UniProtKB/TrEMBL annotation:
<keyword id="KW-0812">Transmembrane</keyword>
<keyword id="KW-0813">Transport</keyword>
<feature type="domain" description="ABC transmembrane type-1">
    <location>
        <begin position="225"/>
        <end position="445"/>
    </location>
</feature>
<feature type="transmembrane region" description="Helical">
    <location>
        <begin position="224"/>
        <end position="251"/>
    </location>
</feature>
<feature type="region of interest" description="Disordered">
    <location>
        <begin position="1"/>
        <end position="23"/>
    </location>
</feature>
<keyword id="KW-1003">Cell membrane</keyword>
<dbReference type="InterPro" id="IPR000515">
    <property type="entry name" value="MetI-like"/>
</dbReference>
<feature type="transmembrane region" description="Helical">
    <location>
        <begin position="104"/>
        <end position="126"/>
    </location>
</feature>
<dbReference type="InterPro" id="IPR035906">
    <property type="entry name" value="MetI-like_sf"/>
</dbReference>
<keyword id="KW-0762">Sugar transport</keyword>
<feature type="transmembrane region" description="Helical">
    <location>
        <begin position="263"/>
        <end position="284"/>
    </location>
</feature>
<comment type="similarity">
    <text>Belongs to the binding-protein-dependent transport system permease family. MalFG subfamily.</text>
</comment>
<feature type="transmembrane region" description="Helical">
    <location>
        <begin position="310"/>
        <end position="339"/>
    </location>
</feature>
<feature type="transmembrane region" description="Helical">
    <location>
        <begin position="360"/>
        <end position="380"/>
    </location>
</feature>
<feature type="transmembrane region" description="Helical">
    <location>
        <begin position="423"/>
        <end position="444"/>
    </location>
</feature>
<keyword id="KW-1133">Transmembrane helix</keyword>
<dbReference type="Pfam" id="PF00528">
    <property type="entry name" value="BPD_transp_1"/>
</dbReference>
Length: 459
């Protein structure tokens, strides 16, 4: 027979919350209900506000997708059946609108993206009903709407704040990228496949085959690709070396008026790049530019800075040094200012000269900090549209190339193909190849840097 003290202790213990005889099956019933009718599982779990919100959202989504999803799937598969056409009506030509293949693709992508988002919400609702059902099975009461908001504020605030930026990235960045990739698998190009008068069709890998098999396209692609790689490497190396040289010179104690020198060096970076490049284009003009007029006094004649293939490439590299060197100078100067003078003093005590100090102390510090930025600059120079377009517009022209000149990069050639010649499928294929080259090259180089290896060792 139990004692009174034992009974008193047992009466003092809190009893678990009970929801009736089905408490051991809530985790099975609630998710099934939410799977059948999203939100009904939350209502079953007595989360009335959350359930009603899910019901309203699901009702709106079902009504929206019932009228758009089938058309979206049809549009993505067919890209339209009937193009726009002119018909004679009462002796007048009337435009009869048809299917616009590109608009169909964009609208279908938007609907499909929204459908994927709804599927994510649908699965989350089922998981939420399951988790709440498990809590009820264990005797715990379901969270109220106020408690849910408090939990989000205290523990999921960052994720909640990322919803709007995430939606912007999805529809303003990822969706256009997917659209651009899909264009590479169509025949969307002038003159025979430009909507609305013509339809666009899926052609699979024919665009890539055309780019590599046809001599006219493959010759242009390989030639422009070779110059793009050479330009990116030389442009990155020259701006880095020139910035390093100037930073090392100004770091010497013997240099006076360092503030004035630094201000003069930064001015080209502070001026808008477009203004600097247009001014440089006028200065290097072969007929009336001030540089040729000045050189003519020394009997050097009229150099074809922007009209000869060799001199045009030389000119864009020199101008890029003028435009890009200040940034490298600033970055390297900031690294030099963080190196402790005690390291140089210890090296001098050991008998190290200036070159040995630079090789053992200065260069390793600079490369450790600057190597990832150099990789970013290299990737940026692959896509350095401004310098090439504003200085030479890709010229001088090359009769052996398709819509490209001697100084065109892949990015400027892509621009000409799309905006000037309406050859979108080839341009899209070039964009995909350019992305693969830059991404692969950047990732491989970054993994070789000391900063990446040190980060791996610390993890």
């Amino acid at each position: 027979m139990p004692s009174k003290g034992t009974n008193r202790v047992s009466r003092a213990q809190p009893k678990p919350h009970s929801d009736g005889p089905m408490k051991t099956r809530h985790h099975m019933v609630a998710p099934v209900l939410s799977a059948l009718i999203p939100g009904s599982g939350q209502i079953y779990n007595r989360q009335w506000i959350k359930g009603l919100m899910m019901l309203l959202l699901s009702g709106f989504a079902i009504s929206y997708f019932a009228s758009t999803l089938r058309t979206a799937v049809w549009g993505m598969i067919t890209l339209g059946d009937v193009p726009s056409r002119l018909e004679e009506v009462n002796g007048r030509s009337v435009n009869v609108p048809g299917d616009h293949s590109i608009n169909l693709m964009i609208q279908s992508l938007i609907v499909l993206f929204l459908f994927v988002l709804y599927l994510i919400v649908y699965i989350s609702v089922i998981k939420d009903a399951y988790r709440t059902g498990r809590k009820r099975d264990s005797g715990l009461p379901p969270a109220t709407f106020r408690q849910t908001l408090t939990f989000i504020h205290d523990f999921k605030f960052a994720q909640a704040m990322l919803v709007l930026p995430g939606a912007g990235i999805l529809f303003l960045t990822i969706l256009p990228i997917v659209f651009m990739v899909l264009l590479a698998f169509t025949n969307y190009s002038s003159p025979h496949h430009i909507p609305p008068g013509n339809l666009v069709d899926w052609v699979g890998l024919d665009t890539f085959a055309q780019l590599f098999r046809l001599s006219s396209w493959s010759g242009t692609f390989l030639g422009v690709l070779g110059w793009t790689v050479l330009w990116a490497v030389v442009a990155t190396a020259t701006t880095f070396i020139s910035g390093l040289a100037v930073a090392l010179v100004l770091s010497q104690k013997e240099i006076r008026l360092k503030g004035i020198w630094r201000t003069l060096i930064i001015i080209p970076y502070a001026i808008p790049q477009m203004i600097s490049l247009l001014a440089m284009k006028m200065m290097f003009n072969g007929k009336f530019g001030p540089i040729n007029q000045y050189l003519s006094h020394f009997g050097l004649g009229q150099l074809p800075w922007l009209t000869d293939p060799f001199w045009a490439k030389f000119t864009v590299i020199i101008v890029n040094i003028w435009v890009g060197m200040p940034l490298s100078f600033l970055l390297i100067s900031s690294v030099l200012s963080t190196i402790s003078p005690d390291l140089y003093e210890a090296a001098r005590v050991e008998g190290a000269g200036r070159w040995q100090q630079a090789r053992i102390i200065t260069f390793p510090f600079i490369m450790f900090a600057i190597a990832p930025i150099l990789i970013i600059q290299l990737a940026g120079n692959f896509n350095n549209f401004n310098v090439i377009y504003l200085l030479t517009n890709g010229g001088p022209s090359n009769p052996e190339y398709q819509f490209a000149g001697h100084t065109d990069l892949l990015i400027t050639w892509l621009y000409k193909l799309t905006l000037n010649n309406n050859i979108y499928n080839i341009a899209s294929a070039i964009g995909i190849i350019l992305f693969i080259i830059i991404a692969g090259f950047s990732i491989w180089n970054y993994r070789q840097t000391r900063s990446f290896k040190d980060e791996e060792m610390t993890q």
